[in-house]
Amino acid sequence: MSNRVINWFRYASPQTFYPLAGQLIPWFWALAALFGALGLTIGFLLAPTDAQQGEGYRIIFLHVPASWMSMFIYLVMAFWAATGLAFNTRLSGMMASALAPTGALFAFLSLWTGALWGKPMWGAWWVWDARLTSELILLFLYIGFIALQAAIDDPRRADKAGAILALVGVVNIPIIYFSVKWWNTLHQGASVSLTKAPSMAAMMLWGMLFCALACWMYSIAVALTRVRTIMLERERHTDWVRALLADKE
After folding, report:
1. Which of 1, 40, 52, 124 holds its CA 20 to 30 A away from the CA of 86?
2. Do the Cβ atoms of 195 and 150 come closer than 8 Å?
3. What is the pLDDT of residues 70-82, one digit of tens each?
4. Whose CA is closest to 173, among 143, 215, 138?
5. With a threshold of 0.85, does the pTM exceed it?
6. In this structure, which long-range contacts are made by residues 60-64, counting pairs with CB atoms below 8 Å and at least 24 apart in sequence?
7. How far is it, in rounded angstroms, from Cα 7 to Cα 121?
């Protein structure tokens, strides 16, 4: 058991994690392409037309996975930030920095696709709905995290400052998720729940789940690609990076 624990902790070192990430990236890109192709094919070609919303409902195959990922990535980013504060590990701050741009992308996509869906359904591109407003705050939290880290030259100080902001912002995640239950909003309740049977056709559900898996695999692939770049930038004065760059030359 102790040997397994030691082996896992080996990957807390950027020098050890860098080649592992390089080996994993192609697999996650392949899975993202596979799940994306399945999800979009089912969602836009095979899933039945919704009885109330017609063909316009198909935006959910982009909107819902993007919304899920915007929240999930923030939680993972906050986890890495907390780990960095608790154990002072370099990799933790790098992972939080690598995740933030992808989380911001999904938060933006959630708002943008929500507007495209809301216009025909509600008659407006934007309303100050509780879920929309809290999702907008999430986007600002991502942007604030990225801007704060960019404003501080010392990476370790930037990681600590960003970690504090990330942990404070975690309170917004349950607000987004439970907003439709806590307040009277225009958003409908969740169609997919761990405790209830899904309220949508099986084909719609499969399409949404495959799209969500595609977004998940994409997020991992991009985060690993970005963290490798961050490692090379931050560790450029170390022997292992110099040796790596010398081998490439």
Report:
1. 1
2. no
3. 999 999 999 999 9
4. 138
5. yes
6. 60/117, 60/204, 60/208, 61/207, 61/208, 61/211, 62/109, 62/113, 62/211, 63/109, 63/110, 63/113, 63/114, 63/117, 64/191, 64/208, 64/211, 64/212
7. 53
Around Cβ 236, how many Cβ atoms within 10 Å?
10
Residue 121's pLDDT is what?
72
Question: What are the structural domain ranges in the chain?
Answer: 26-46+58-244
Apex CA 173: angle with CA 152 and CA 95, to 5°?
Answer: 40
What letter represents residue 74's amino acid?
A: Y
CA distance from start to end of the chain: 41
User: Do 201 and 48 form a contact (C-beta atoms < 8 A)?
Assistant: yes
More confident residue, 94 or 189: 94
Beta bridge partners of 50: 54
Q: Name, in order, each residue with C-beta under 8 angstroms of 94's C-beta and a sequence gap of 6 or more.
A: 14, 227, 230, 231, 234
What's the chain's Rg over C-alpha atoms? 20
pLDDT tens by residue, 34-54: 999 999 999 989 988 877 777
d(CA 219, CA 166): 18
The pair of three-digit structure tokens given for residue 9, joined into one six-digit string: 């902790």
What is d(CA 215, CA 71) in angstroms, rounded to the nearest whole number?
Answer: 12
**Cβ distance 190 to 180 under 8 Å?**
yes
**Band of the pLDDT at 204, cuts 50, 70, 90?**
confident
Torsion angles phi and psi, residue 200, rounded to 5: -130, 165
